[in-house]
Design a protein that fits this description.
Elements (H helix, E strand, L loop, with lengths): L5 E6 L3 E6 L3 E7 L2 E4 L4 E5 L1 H4 L9 E4 L2 E2 L2 E2 L2 H15 L8 E6 L5 H13 L4 E6 H8 L10 E6 L4 E7 L2 E8 L3 H16 L1 E2 L2 H11 L10 E8 L5 E7 H7 L1 H17 L2 H10 L1 E4 L8 H9 L3 E3 L6 H8 L4 H7 L2 E4 L2
Helix pairs in contact: 2-3, 4-11, 5-6, 5-7, 8-10
Length: 338
């Protein structure tokens, strides 16, 4: 039995990743909970609950307690965190120290909600680290050097764009447009063009399989099933990559505009560094086909996708456990009991 485990948590809108010091990422589950409304009992958490989205009877609801990178349902988030922390750790004598990753644009009230949820879920001490910093560490960037580095982290609920130098964020923006908005845009497009209603899981599957932010060399098609809005009966249509390009135009445009606005506000010396080094993309949104090509075309700067972009933030959060004192110096917030 270990005395204490230090834990890093990437508290994402779409999924939660837990990093345990010395073990790496030990848990990666969708941040979804299924609850019986009559008894208030947890029926399923994570992947099992995600399978229930859009398919539950009246007394069961599948809930995403995090929205746009912040807590929208405090009580359920706390219970979900406690469940994931227990599931990812062996028995320990002392409560864990937890470092949680949050979007760079959240308010003080939203930060406090995250800290309190972790404290009630069993943390002895809670540290807060901002997503761009964690993403940069996870991508293997030395954030302590004076040279500027630019990171774009596209998650489920938020997109964080930041220029980092000397261990801190110099210029940044955080917009609440990301993967979930792309799913919603696909749903709206299918409804408008094909008079068909599809669920959020079907939209997400379309985005993963044929979604694109940049024209593809060869047109591809994917069959999707849904409900005909005119007849009310099930129907199937073949959706093309061109449809996806059109459907995703608005959310993708907002993300590229956010990147442009950060570059406009970047000091000239750091902008020169970024021009030489390129931009690093992390998060699940980095896997959307052509996202790197589009940003590179719009900015004229080389863009590379980090190795294993989905786990980058969690890995960076976990690695930062090894130098908590440096984090304190760099201005990370610390909460909890000594």
């Amino acid at each position: 039995m270990a005395l204490r485990s230090d834990v890093g948590i990437d508290l994402g809108t779409a999924s939660i990743l837990v990093y345990v010091k010395g073990k790496g990422v030990v848990l990666k589950e969708p941040s979804v909970v299924a609850i019986d409304q009559y008894t208030n009992k947890f029926l399923a958490v994570g992947e099992e609950a995600r399978q229930m989205l859009g398919r539950t009877p009246g007394n069961i609801v599948a809930i995403r307690p995090l929205k746009n990178g912040v807590i929208s349902d405090y009580e359920i988030t706390e219970r979900m965190l406690r469940y994931f922390i227990r599931k990812s750790m062996n028995k320990t004598i002392f409560k864990p120290r937890i470092i949680v990753c949050v979007p760079s644009g959240i308010t003080d009230v939203e930060r406090r909600a995250v800290v309190e949820a972790c404290q009630h879920a069993g943390a002895i001490k809670t540290y807060i680290i901002e997503e761009p910093i964690a993403a940069a560490i996870g991508a293997g960037i030395d954030i302590t050097e004076p040279d500027g580095n630019m990171v774009i982290d596209i998650g489920g609920g938020t997109t964080d764009v930041a220029v980092i130098a000397l261990g801190g964020i110099v210029v940044n923006t955080s917009i609440r447009v990301a993967g979930d908005d792309c799913d919603e845009a696909i749903t709206k497009y299918i409804r408008k063009k094909y008079n068909m209603m599809i669920g959020e899981r079907s939209a997400e599957n379309l985005k993963i399989s044929i979604g694109c932010a940049y024209p593809v060399e060869e047109e591809r098609y994917e069959a999707v099933k849904g409900r005909n809005l005119l007849t009310g009966l099930p129907m199937t249509v073949d959706v093309s990559t061109s449809d996806m390009l059109e459907a995703l135009r608005d959310p993708i445009h907002e993300i590229t505009e956010a990147v442009h606005s950060v570059l406009e506000r970047t000091p000239p010396e750091l902008a020169s560094d970024i021009g030489n080094k390129g931009i690093v993309m992390t998060g699940g949104g980095a896997l959307l086909y052509g996202m790197d090509k589009l940003i590179s075309k719009r900015t004229g700067i080389e863009v590379r996708i980090a190795d294993n972009p989905v786990e980058c933030v969690a890995v960076g959060t976990g690695k930062s456990l090894e130098w908590l004192k440096s984090l304190e110096i760099a201005g990370a917030e610390i909460h909890g009991r000594k």
